[in-house]
Specification:
Length: 198
């Protein structure tokens, strides 16, 4: 029975399992992508990701800690020199598992496990930023709405690419006329007329 079995032992003793994961981790660091079974890849992910996090801080202590797991100076140098620079901004999730079907001999589930930052296909897609829109489906500014109304009403304007939206004219708004300055002579006449009326 497998009650409470949180770790997949991969049908190996403890020392054999550690040696296997150390070898797989070294291969992943050197080659950036390896082909293995899904069970081994899932076990490797929990083994190698803490080492990748540890490599972000380049100190003697962290190098010795990582070396105690990998037992390979070359892979430790590659990890701290090259990979740590690429994963510096990423807060975890350094590996990706891509299933590739089953193996011909024993029908085992196979997959690729790779370092996320070294795959140019996926990283090229994530660089393209999507235009921001609201939950209601609008595209955002009122200027684009005016632009679409102008282009729908006038086919000649629609042909030109750059349309500057004009400010909407409201009939209800009233601009008061500026009063002209009166000449001093006319002011005297107006004041005399008001006095005579009284």
């Amino acid at each position: 029975m497998r009650h409470g079995k949180k770790i997949n032992h991969l049908s190996r003793t403890d020392s054999h399992r550690k040696a296997l994961l150390s070898s797989l981790a070294t291969s992943l660091i050197v080659h950036k992508r390896i082909n293995t079974t899904v069970a081994k890849a899932k076990a490797l992910r929990t083994y190698v990701e803490p080492l990748l996090t540890k490599s972000k801080l380049d100190s003697t202590h962290s190098r010795r800690t990582v070396f105690s797991y990998l037992q390979d100076k070359n892979s430790v140098n590659i990890l701290f020199r090259d990979i740590a620079v690429k994963i510096a901004e990423r807060p975890g999730g350094y590996t990706r598992i891509i299933k590739t079907g089953t193996r011909l001999g024993d029908n085992a589930e196979m997959c690729f496990i790779e370092l996320v930052d070294y795959n140019e296909i996926y990283t090229a897609k994530t660089e393209v930023k999507k235009s921001k829109s609201t939950r209601r489906g609008r595209s955002g500014s009122a200027g684009s709405k005016v632009k679409s109304e102008v282009s729908n009403s006038n086919p000649v304007v629609a042909a030109s690419e750059e349309v500057v939206p004009a400010e909407p004219i409201h009939e209800e708004t009233h601009i008061p006329a500026v009063e002209e300055e009166k000449a001093p002579e006319q002011e005297k006449q107006d004041s005399e007329e008001t006095e005579t009326e009284k």
